[in-house]
Amino acid sequence: MLSLSRLTLTDYRNYQQLVWRPDQAGTDGRVSVLTGANGSGKTNLLEALSMLVPGRGLRGARLADVQRLGAAGWAVAARLAQDGEAFEIGTGLTTEAGVAGGATVGASSGGRRVFRLDGEPARNRAAVAERLCAVWLTPQMDRLFIEGPSGRRRFLDRLVLALEPEHAREVAAHDEAMQGRNRLLQNPRTDPAWLAAQESSMARHAVAVCAARRSLVGRLNGAPQDAPETGFPAATLELACEITTQLMAHPALVVEDWLRDQLGRRRASDAAAGGASLGGHRADLLLSDRATARPASLGSTGQQKALLIGILLAHAALIAEVRGEAPLLLLDEPLVHLDTTRREALFAALLRLPAPALLTGTDPEPFAPLRGQAGFWRAGEGKLRPDSAFGSEYPGPPAAERV
């Protein structure tokens, strides 16, 4: 069981200073419902929590863009517990010299991204990912099935990252090698040995990336997504990727050699096209309803949303099984496009999972079935207050934490 007992935000978007204790809304704090008008800061709070794991959060924002207007940096810190053992994770952007240490990431503002575990600099980002993972749902993902493959690829890579913390490094290394090759291809006098070196690196990382994606797809397809139990349709996932097809028939080292040869053969055509025609960046994720084999792209908006939620719930259960620890669930506007039956199925599923879940919505009424089981909060003016109509009054933080 993972629990969240305290979240502190400093100069994060519209929050100048916030100390939030989810369990002080009349429940155990495992499920929290945040409501409020558009622009009140609901998604900002979910995004802040998503920044506690490596990456750019659920919005994919630049690190310098999330700090409050006029602030010199930002910070997010949380106190959590796994099976009763408490730990703290913090991250932020600072311009103070000598403060970063440990795992840092550059930012365009000149500051540095800092990660800390239990008050000490994290040795690297993988150490943070090993301690905590998060799964999220955003309204932008409602268009996942009808837009281009890049969004589906990023979605899949986030799922992989939750189980394999080194995956982000492999993706970044692949993209860096690919961009280096693209630059060299634009110069007709480039030494072929330099191109060969970039292609060798690109092939190695592309195979690692595609193998990790293939592994996760296999795990999710093999997971017992029991629709009667979850209330959501089971999905079949498929990778449309030449490298993955090769991996199904040959060992990884053989596929690396094949890809290296293909990149060499395609230099002229790739130079003319301005980019690589083969690599990890060309993969697409195809989804369909397991029971009917109907592609997700042909389903209604409600059916697509149900498939997506079913995948996320199956993924959360897989994380808990494989890692021995549950993920943090961040669901932004999850009830949009869901009928009453599916809404109640989602509530039941969240209450079964051994993980904290945060849900947002404009009004609390659609979440009424959770009354007495979830904490209800109203966001606005850079604050988070309990909704007294749906739960007990929040007494406020201890005197030492009041700001």
TrEMBL record:
PROSITE patterns: RECF_1
Gene name linked to the record: recF
Family annotation (InterPro entries): DNA-binding_RecF, DNA-binding_RecF_CS, P-loop_NTPase, RecF/RecN/SMC_N, RecF_2
Entry's family note: Belongs to the RecF family.
MF-aspect GO terms: ATP binding; single-stranded DNA binding
Matching PANTHER family: DNA REPLICATION AND REPAIR PROTEIN RECF
A Pfam family of this chain: SMC_N
Task performed by this protein: The RecF protein is involved in DNA metabolism; it is required for DNA replication and normal SOS inducibility. RecF binds preferentially to single-stranded, linear DNA. It also seems to bind ATP.
GO cellular component terms listed in the entry, alphabetical order: cytoplasm
Chief location category: cytoplasm
Any Gene Ontology biological process: DNA replication
Domain of life, source organism: Bacteria
Keyword line: ATP-binding, Cytoplasm, DNA damage, DNA repair, DNA replication, DNA-binding, Nucleotide-binding, SOS response
Protein name: DNA replication and repair protein RecF
RecF/RecN/SMC N-terminal domain sequence ranges: 4-349
Residues binding ATP, per UniProt: G36, A37, N38, G39, S40, G41, K42, T43
Localization annotation: Cytoplasm
